[in-house]
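Weekly puzzle thread! Below is a chain. First person to post its structure in token form gets bragging rights.
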Amino acid sequence: SSKTDTGSSLFGTVISAYTDKNINGYKFDKVENFPLTIGSNESLNVIKVYYVKDLFDYTIEYYYDNIKDNTKTESGSALFGSLISAYTDKNIDGYKFDKTEYFPLTIGSNESLNVIKVYYVKDIFDYTVEYYYDNVLDNTKTETGSALFGSVISSYTDKNIDGFKFDKTEKFPLTIGSNESLNVIKVYYVKDSFDYTVEYYYDNIIDN
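Winning reply:
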């Protein structure tokens, strides 16, 4: 009602213009009783101008460690003022949800601002270092730790024991994956060889 215009004109006059009063986020829809020929029944001397909410595009962007993956970007359209309160979860192996920006999103007329941003970051996973002596696991020496997905574990504690020597490792260096049961470094030791001597004595004198 605050936008209603009134005027007076002679009987039979044709009103062929009106002020466009479109507002942000709307578009022209239709007009009724236009052009208007002025009659004696003033209740019928009414031009009605209709506007409806316009459609605007919006975008959902996905970031992994703050790097946007353009292949995962989604786009859509919605009426001005609509609330976008859902998006597709596009988490990937080894990552976890971090945060969103501009969510939920109320659709505005500036499409460059109609952007939801979804962030994922690398998750932390456990790993294990196991120690074997003649192929027998010594659980008392097992070590555990945690590291970010994709990290490389390139060192471990040497736990050789008296009489043994290093043999080999398995899965070393280890690249941390999302399956913690596979994040296992195995270190193998085997019994070492040592020299010995048999000496012969005659009347307590060694015979070299």
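Puzzle host: Confirmed. Bonus trivia for everyone else. DSSP finds no helices and 20 strands in the chain.
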